[in-house]
Amino acid sequence: MKSITIEGSQRESVGKAATKALRNAGKVPCVLYGGDKPLHFSADEIAFKDLVYTPNAHTVVIKLEDGKEQNAILQDIQFHPVSDEILHIDFYRLFEDKEVTIDIPVRKKGNSPGVIAGGVLRMNQRKLKVKALPANLPDFIDADVSELQIGNKLYVTAISQENFKIMHPDNTVVCQVRISRAAMKAAQEAAKAEKEAAKK
């Protein structure tokens, strides 16, 4: 999985006044969990744009002023309800031998015969929750639609899970091919015309 480096400064004061001063200076207060004790730090808001405003999943390298680096994943983020600015971010520390759970984007693979025939592909799940060791976290989960006819559904059980486990029930539909409205209307009109012709 691709990684993004965030350069930050460790925070000594974590009270409301200190947090407000940080935000006024264009910085985001953050906490890194998963170690002996939580690590409080801050970083420029602009440093998070490639991590937050993207459909892709990334791991994070948190690089502090003292030169220490911590590998982590984004766990939780709070936005201002009006301005949408980032208020706070929680990270979780990664350990090579410890599995983590993270949302991974789903990527369509192949061409569906049902879509070629006039159906519409609907992505029911844009992301899937996955559990794996950090080294085995995929950038994407491929949903192969090359066998889907109109009316068919692709379930999570059809997705290859070699080095990771998908944390959804087996009956979770990833995507499906539905008949388009135009095709449905045409079929209804054809059936109506056939019925009237039979009457004559």
TrEMBL record:
Keyword Ribonucleoprotein: yes
Gene Ontology annotations for the cellular component aspect, listed alphabetically: cytosolic large ribosomal subunit
Pfam families: Ribosomal_L25p, Ribosomal_TL5_C
InterPro entries cross-referenced by the UniProt entry: Rbsml_bL25/Gln-tRNA_synth_N (IPR020056), Ribosomal_bL25/Gln-tRNA_synth (IPR011035), Ribosomal_bL25_b-dom (IPR020057), Ribosomal_bL25_C (IPR037121), Ribosomal_bL25_long (IPR001021), Ribosomal_L25_dom (IPR029751), Ribosomal_uL5_bac-type (IPR020930)
GO MF terms, alphabetically ordered: 5S rRNA binding; structural constituent of ribosome
Top-rank lineage group of the source organism: Bacteria
Domain spans labelled Large ribosomal subunit protein bL25 beta: 99-179
Alphabetical UniProt keywords: Ribonucleoprotein, Ribosomal protein, RNA-binding, rRNA-binding
Xref: Gene3D superfamilies: Ribosomal protein L25, beta domain, Ribosomal Protein L25, Chain P
Domain Large ribosomal subunit protein bL25 L25: residue ranges: 6-91
GO terms under biological process: translation
Subunit structure: Part of the 50S ribosomal subunit; part of the 5S rRNA/L5/L18/L25 subcomplex. Contacts the 5S rRNA. Binds to the 5S rRNA independently of L5 and L18.
Function: This is one of the proteins that binds to the 5S RNA in the ribosome where it forms part of the central protuberance.
HAMAP family, per database record: Ribosomal_bL25_CTC
PANTHER family the UniProt entry points to: RIBOSOMAL PROTEIN L25/GLN-TRNA SYNTHETASE, ANTI-CODON-BINDING DOMAIN-CONTAINING PROTEIN, RIBOSOMAL PROTEIN L25_GLN-TRNA SYNTHETASE, ANTI-CODON-BINDING DOMAIN-CONTAINING PROTEIN
Annotated family: Belongs to the bacterial ribosomal protein bL25 family. CTC subfamily.
Name of the protein described by the UniProt record: Large ribosomal subunit protein bL25
Species of origin: Robertkochia marina
Gene (UniProt): rplY
